[in-house]
């Protein structure tokens, strides 16, 4: 492992981004598959209607999240096989992919905890809309509601002198 660098972070090459994206997709696909397999093993012996419905809902969440990440990171190649675009970097800090990965992790945690401990752990899924609400508040609503009042735009000298002459004329008329 390379020692940590001080200063500016090094940029990644397009091929490195493609390789890391493939590794990231494989990791989260395996996480979803293992979580589903373990949950299905428990579901076979202890099943209720709500468990079955939530199991299928979790499968839909996994598929949707995985397909979204695969679509985001799809590289584009030229006809001769040259890499034109590496796709979105799934490991970029603060990106949308980070939130999608969190959804997969949350779903796996809910599914496994609900399968092995208590069905009440399915309620942890309510953290996803709460997180969405927080992101919307922080990035959209809060800056809108608490923006400072616009300051008087400074007039250039020409307009300032014109305004002063106009005020003097108005004072002379009175």
TrEMBL record:
Family assignment from sequence similarity: Belongs to the TMEM208 family.
Pfam families linked: TMEM208_SND2 (PF05620)
Annotated organism of origin: Hypothenemus hampei (Coffee berry borer)
Coarse class of the protein's main subcellular location: endoplasmic reticulum
GO CC annotation terms, alphabetical: endoplasmic reticulum membrane
Region of interest (Disordered), residue spans: 155-174
Membrane topology label: Multi-pass membrane protein
Record's subcellular location: Endoplasmic reticulum membrane
Biased composition (Basic residues): 160-174
Transmembrane parts of this sequence: 37-65, 103-128
Keyword Aminoacyl-tRNA synthetase: no
Keywords: Endoplasmic reticulum, Membrane, Transmembrane, Transmembrane helix
Name of the protein in its database record: Transmembrane protein 208
Top-level taxon: Eukaryota
């Amino acid at each position: 492992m390379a020692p940590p660098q001080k200063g500016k972070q090094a940029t990644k090459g397009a091929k490195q981004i493609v390789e890391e994206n493939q590794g990231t997709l494989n990791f989260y696909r395996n996480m979803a598959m293992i979580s589903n397999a373990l949950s299905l093993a428990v579901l076979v012996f202890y099943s209720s209607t709500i468990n079955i419905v939530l199991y299928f809902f979790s499968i839909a969440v996994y598929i949707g999240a995985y397909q979204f990440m695969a679509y985001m990171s799809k590289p584009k190649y030229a006809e001769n096989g040259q890499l034109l675009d590496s796709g979105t970097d799934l490991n970029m800090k603060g990106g949308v992919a980070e939130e999608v990965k969190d959804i997969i992790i949350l779903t796996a945690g809910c599914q496994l905890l609900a399968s092995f401990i208590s069905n009440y752990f399915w309620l942890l899924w309510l953290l996803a809309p709460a997180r969405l609400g927080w992101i919307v508040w922080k990035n959209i609503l809060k800056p809108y509601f608490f923006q400072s009042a616009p300051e008087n735009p400074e007039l250039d000298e020409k307009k300032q002198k014109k305004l002063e002459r106009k005020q003097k004329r108005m004072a002379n008329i009175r």
